């Protein structure tokens, strides 16, 4: 059997993150599994406190899980030296925060902000200038390159932030509520910019969001509940016999490596499924029945 997620770009295998707050343990992630393939653009959704930000912090190298395995582009996130962690954060991943002001240096122009990570990486000036112009152009901001963040709208600032995060050609872009502070139309522009990064530049994109306009437009939406992945919606475009295309969305329960899955609570309550269930293997599905009265 091949190793779990061996061909995926991001692999989280049973990750646990426990915070200790004064003698109380908070389990922010409780055995979370997730794989993301290279080139995917996915959304992560979930109620407040379900563990989304903790997961992004782990994946972007800001935080270290208590247990489990997490790998991104071959980097083992539980076993990195401080120097490797810095290199990982500079070269392998890009990050966009919800608070627009946190993404950019206020006293630098848009082009200076985009150019900065390339200077840190030691890129020669001529290449840097060319790439800065290309990135701002791809984000639809060629005419605003000289403006400082304070002279740009919230959506324009987020698009500059996307250009900054793409500067050193990261493998993955992580965005935590990138449209959270924006109105609908501006949020759409930011989402379009992320899509450009994904489609035209080939960057894998992972977005944590409460915004249904975002989560309904990506290929896959992963739902997190109580620090675990609980379900996934996969979307694909189907063309009918008349040539009309429609997006088909299908919801799946997540099956972990050990074969465990969670039955939705409304399924359990409507059939009275409790403590144990009877399983039967059919030719193309598995049947789940309540245990018989006599055995209860
Ligand atoms: N630094 C910390 N110290 C202690 N507990 C924390 C810390 N960070 C997060 N938690 C706790 O871990 C759990 C998950 O938090 P997390 O911020 O990951 O959730 P979230 O899904 O991102 O929520 P939101 O949508 O509100 O941002 C919560 O119970 C939270 O209180």
Automatic annotation (TrEMBL):
SUPFAM superfamilies: P-loop containing nucleoside triphosphate hydrolases (SSF52540). GO terms for cellular component: membrane protein complex; plasma membrane. It holds the Pfam family ABC_tran. Residues 10-251 form the ABC transporter domain. Keywords: ATP-binding, Nucleotide-binding, Transport. The keyword NADP does not apply. It comes from the Bacteria. The keyword Secreted does not apply. GO terms for molecular function: ATP binding; ATP hydrolysis activity; transmembrane transporter activity. Coiled coil: none annotated. This is ABC transporter ATP-binding protein. The lineage of its organism: Bacteria, Bacillati, Actinomycetota, Actinomycetes, Micrococcales.
């Amino acid at each position: 059997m091949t190793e779990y997620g061996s061909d995926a770009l991001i692999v989280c295998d049973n990750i646990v993150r426990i915070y200790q707050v004064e003698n109380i343990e908070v389990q922010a992630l409780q055995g979370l599994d997730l794989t993301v393939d290279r080139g995917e653009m996915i959304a992560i959704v979930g109620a407040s406190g379900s563990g989304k930000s903790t997961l992004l912090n782990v994946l972007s190298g800001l935080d270290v899980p208590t247990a489990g395995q997490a790998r991104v582009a071959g980097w083992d996130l539980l076993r990195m030296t401080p120097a490797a962690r810095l290199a990982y954060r500079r070269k392998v991943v890009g990050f966009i925060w919800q608070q627009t002001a946190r993404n950019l240096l206020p006293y630098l122009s848009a082009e200076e902000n985009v150019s900065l990570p390339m200077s840190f990486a030691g890129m020669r000036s001529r290449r840097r200038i060319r790439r800065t112009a290309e990135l701002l152009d791809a984000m639809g901001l060629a005419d605003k390159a000289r403006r400082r963040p304070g002279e740009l709208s919230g959506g324009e600032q987020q698009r500059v932030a996307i250009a900054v995060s793409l500067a050193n050609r990261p493998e993955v872009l992580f965005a935590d509520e990138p449209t959270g502070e924006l109105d609908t139309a501006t949020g759409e522009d930011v989402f379009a910019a992320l899509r450009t990064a994904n489609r035209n530049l080939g960057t894998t994109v992972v977005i944590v969001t409460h915004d249904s306009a975002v989560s309904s437009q990506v290929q896959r939406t992963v739902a997190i509940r109580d620090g675990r992945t609980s379900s996934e919606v996969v979307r694909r475009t189907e063309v009918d016999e008349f040539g009309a295309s429609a997006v088909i969305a299908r919801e799946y329960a997540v099956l972990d490596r050990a074969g465990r899955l969670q039955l939705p609570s409304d399924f359990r309550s409507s059939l009275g499924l409790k403590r144990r269930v009877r399983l039967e293997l059919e030719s193309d599905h598995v049947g789940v029945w309540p245990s018989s009265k006599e055995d209860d």
